[in-house]
Amino acid sequence: MINHTLIVRLTFAAASASLAAAALGYAATDSFPVAGAVVAGAMLGLVPFISWNQLVHPLMEYGHVGRIILLTFGKLALYGSALYLLVILLRLPPLPLGAGLLLSTSIFIVGSLASGGPRARAGTQDHGGTGTP
Fold first, then answer.
1. Which of 1, 109, 111, 9 is nearest to 56 (CA)?
2. What distances in angstroms separate CA 78 from CA 12, 26, 47, 86, 116, one per listed residue?
3. What's the CA gap between 72 and 55, in Å, rounded?
4. Looking at the whole model, is its pTM more than 0.85?
5. φ, ψ (nearest 5 deg) of residue 106
6. Helices and strands in the chain: count of H runs, count of E runs
């Protein structure tokens, strides 16, 4: 699991990068929908990482598989609804939206890999947070 401090740092890094990319997109195209699509895509890309740390991981520790499945379908419904709203109703261009998703996801993946991620000590196993080796 990615620790809370790392998630906060990577969230701010992804938000900063998406704002910079939105400014660059606006400067290149002189279009607010392109800039808005980059930011919206980046914020939508943060959902899996934040929800994993705050919702799914604690449920996994206590074996609530049914709730995890419901949460997964809820997140899929959120994605479908958000993409429908952003692309169809608000008519944001889908390519910058996808670029924003890719940007925030890439920042989280590279940032968590660069931090070393969680490491288990040699000779111990994780038993669901019970504290027993």
1. 1
2. 22, 27, 10, 12, 31
3. 11
4. no
5. -65, -40
6. 5, 0
- Tokens for 104, please give them: 């925030």
Please tell me the distance from the alpha carbon of residue 84 to that of residue 127, in angstroms, as a whole number: 41
The token duo for 129 is 């947070």
**CB-based contacts of 86: which residues, under 8 Å, 6+ apart?**
37, 40, 92, 97
* Closest C-alpha to 101, from 88, 86, 122, 119: 86
Residue for token pair 């890999």: 113
The token duo for 62 is: 């206590």
Q: What are φ and ψ of residue 128, in 5° steps?
A: 70, 30
pLDDT tens figures, 88-122? 999 999 999 999 999 999 999 999 889 886 554 44
Burial (Cβ within 10 Å: 0-12, 13-18, ≥19) of residue 73: exposed
The secondary structure of the chain in percent helix, strand, coil, rounded to multiples of 5, reads: 75, 0, 25
- Tell me the pLDDT tens digit for each residue of 34-69: 999 999 999 999 888 888 777 777 888 887 888 888
Give me the mean pLDDT over the 72-89 stretch. 92
Q: Give the closest residue to 11 by CA, choosing from 119, 111, 95.
A: 111
